[in-house]
């Protein structure tokens, strides 16, 4: 489990874009270790999931046919 001061430090930092490097420097550990802690222990990611349009079955089939046609031309 993570030390209490570590989780407190993370909650006090308002900007998540700069949190990894600054936290690693403050705790005197490597950036890669910090990324691992964020990913595995805190379940944080370096990106935000964006909503996208769903792919319909018809367009999926169309792409498959187009791809096979392109491969056949090679």
Automatic annotation (TrEMBL):
It comes from the Eukaryota. This is Uncharacterized protein.
């Amino acid at each position: 489990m993570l030390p209490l001061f570590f989780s407190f430090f993370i909650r006090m930092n308002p900007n998540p874009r700069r949190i990894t490097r600054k936290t690693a420097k403050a705790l005197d550990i490597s950036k890669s270790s910090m990324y691992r802690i964020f990913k595995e222990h805190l379940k944080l990611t370096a990106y935000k999931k964006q909503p996208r349009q769903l792919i319909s079955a018809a367009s999926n089939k169309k792409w498959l046919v187009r791809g096979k046609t392109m491969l056949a031309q090679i």
